[in-house]
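Morning, I've got a small favour to ask if you have a moment. I've dropped the whole record in just underneath, so have a look.
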Amino acid sequence: MSLIWTIIIGFLAGLVARAVLPGRQSLGIIWTTLLGIVGSVIATYIGQALGWYAAGTGAGFIASVVGAIIVLVIYGMVAKRA
């Protein structure tokens, strides 16, 4: 059940990140979900490294959205160069 919640929260975080960031991102539903999941993983890793989260706990929804925005900005920079 945890995997299903991870996918749902990742999808929602990806949607919010795409809505917040200005510009047009041509990503489908699968890539939006992966964007949110990767953003959540990055937010969790950074939060644990900085001592914000205990080991074994995940990032919250807002941190997941911030992580997804970071991933989306990096994706936009790489996609423009290619």
In short: Residues 7 and 68 are 13 Å apart (CA to CA). Residues 29-49 form the longest helix (21 residues). Residues 2-81 form one domain. The chain has one domain: 2-81.
